[in-house]
Specification:
4 helices, elongated, about 40% helix, 5 strands, Nucleotidyltransferase, domain 5, ExbD, transport
């Protein structure tokens, strides 16, 4: 009798290997198909523009705060290192565009300095982020 009871317990066990394989395949699928949103790292109050167009997010985001601080990739950088950072990021993705997100209270001079550093880095595709009226 004892043999019969132990063999029935073994037959009743469920093999979990196929289910784990499916879970791992689904996990890999979701990781590969996920699109990641790049952010500048700070919140900026963008000015309104009636001619603003919605574009796909640029690959290099530069934010300028109202006090003149410059942020790239969620970290504050000095104006003198903007060129080197943009060159490095542009080398990683040569097709990438630069989007400058300037606070509406920031100085125009700081914006021009940042744009000049981006152009010196060899990037000609530069956009300015604005907000559509009503959004």
């Amino acid at each position: 009798m004892r043999r019969r009871a132990s063999s029935q317990e073994e037959e009743a066990a469920i093999d979990m290997t196929p289910m784990l394989d499916i879970v791992f395949i689904m996990l890999i699928f979701f990781i590969v198909t996920t699109s990641f949103v790049k952010e500048a790292g700070i919140d900026v109050s963008r000015p309104n523009a009636s001619t603003a167009e919605r574009k796909e997010a640029g690959n290099i985001l530069i934010a300028i705060r109202s006090n003149g601080d410059v942020w790239i990739d969620k970290r504050q950088v000095d104006i003198r290192s903007v060129r080197a950072n943009v060159e490095r990021l542009h080398a990683e993705n040569p097709e990438g565009a630069v989007v400058i997100i300037a606070d509406k209270a920031s100085e125009t001079g700081r914006f021009v300095e940042v744009m000049d550093q981006v152009r010196l880095a060899g990037v000609e595709n530069v956009s300015i982020a604005a907000q559509e009226p009503g959004s």
